[in-house]
Amino acid sequence: MTELHLWLRHEARTTERRTPIVPDDARRLVGNGVELTVEESPQRVFPTGAYEAAGCRVAPAGSWVSAPPDAVVLGLKELPDEPAELTHRHVFFGHAYKGQPGAAALLRRFTAGGGTLYDLEYLVDDTGRRLAAFGFWAGYLGAALAVLQHRGRLRAPLTPTTKEELDGVLEPAPGDEEFTGLVVGALGRSGRGARAAFAAAGTDPTCWDLAETRDLDRPALLRHDVMVNCVLATSPVPPFVREQDLDDPGRRLRTLCDVTCDVGSPLNVLPVYDETTDWDAPARRLRDAPPLDLIAIDNLPSLLPLESSTDFSAALLPHLLDFGVSGPWGHCLDRFRRAVDAHGVDRGV
Ligand SMILES: NC(=O)c1ccc[n+]([C@@H]2O[C@H](COP(=O)([O-])OP(=O)(O)OC[C@H]3O[C@@H](n4cnc5c(N)ncnc54)[C@H](O)[C@@H]3O)[C@@H](O)[C@H]2O)c1
Hints:
Blueprint: E1 5-8, H1 23-31, E2 35-39, H2 48-53, E3 57-59, E4 72-74, E5 89-92, H3 103-113, E6 116-119, H4 135-150, H5 163-170, E7 181-184, H6 189-200, E8 206-208, H7 210-213, H8 218-222, E9 226-229, E10 255-258, E11 283-287, E12 292-295, H9 305-320, H10 327-342
Parallel strand pairs: 1-2, 1-4, 2-3, 4-5, 5-6, 7-8, 7-9, 9-10, 10-12
Antiparallel strand pairs: 11-12
Helix pairs in contact: 4-6
The protein binds nicotinamide-adenine-dinucleotide.
The site of nicotinamide-adenine-dinucleotide has 28 residues, from α4, α6 and α7.
């Protein structure tokens, strides 16, 4: 059997402190005969020394470009713009199959170099269920930020924190008014996270999923103070909130958090804004009287890098130990080949 050589790269994005493999799981990989090289990374939430102590070899940031050809390069977010030709097998979230900006260019880099993208979004079982995802913490943060905004205690810019710290500020303080929360998509990963954050904030939210939105009761939706949208829409449905609903005299809704962030997509269930918010300016006022604030941040789990990395790594570990061309990795490979074919470029796999 060929020994697997994994190469954990430094993330190019400076605010990205998460990692797909935490030191404890690195030790498990090494213990199972995997060769693991870890690039130095100033912002990664775990120190490089912890990986070294786990038996990993350390390499300079960005040195994956000259890694041995058989190394599998592992990361989370986008690759740097260079080199133009990608020769390795890469495991990360490529965001390259839904016509996203830069998608075709990324696929061209793979085909030019003969490399392969194993996109983590398509690491699924035979029923199509995602095997490693950050959804829970996205929902947790989405609801937590919405509650803080509603209580007038959201401070910008946002910076990465820990769950312990976050729960400390979420706890209701004397004088905090009671409010009603609504989670839509409540049965999914981020929906469960949102429910947990509402619980930490001392509120038991209304929970809606497919059954409750089939015949949508918009007036009931608008009677909640805080709404967190966590749906994963796969086909267009009538919007949950429309522009005219913002001026509905019966609206109690004051804070709307869109964890889904499908802005601009035909699947968007909240077509009341056209730009996401970010860590520097997390909330945007959509209406003044009565007020309505929007939070739509598309990299929420990065705000809890330790907890989200630990959970993600635990979910990914068994699949890394089983890295290959069949099973879940076969689904990734298949999706890559179809994308390459759809773009009409020669593929090198
Ligand atoms: N903002 C961020 O940083 C961030 C991070 C991770 C994920 N996300 C996004 O969050 C969304 C949810 O992810 P997830 O992992 O929780 O997905 P999931 O598949 O675990 O859950 C989605 C839930 O939505 C429900 N749903 C689908 N259509 C619905 C409808 N019309 N009405 C009511 N419920 C409906 C499903 O039944 C399911 O329970 C995805 O779009 C994902 O891309 C955002």
